[in-house]
Design goal:
71 residues; mainly alpha; 2 helices; 80% helix
Length: 71
């Protein structure tokens, strides 16, 4: 039995790869892959930065409540 990842079966992946080669050509695919990889990397770093900012805000908010209670 073939393993599926959501909607992407191995047969679908091969068909998509063939279509991509026909549309973009074999010389352009590595460049497209690099661009896609960079985009994903930037998205992940931006998401991580946003999560860090939110957690810092939560920590600061919690420390302000502690100070208020102590006064």
């Amino acid at each position: 039995m073939l393993t599926t990842f959501g909607f992407l079966t191995p047969t679908t992946a091969v068909v998509l790869l063939v279509v991509a080669v026909v549309i973009f050509g074999p010389g352009k695919l590595p460049e497209l892959g690099k661009s896609l990889g960079r985009g994903i990397k930037e998205f992940r770093s931006a998401t991580t930065d946003l999560e860090n900012v939110e957690s810092t805000k939560d920590l600061n908010k919690g420390s302000n409540n502690i100070v208020r209670e102590g006064c």
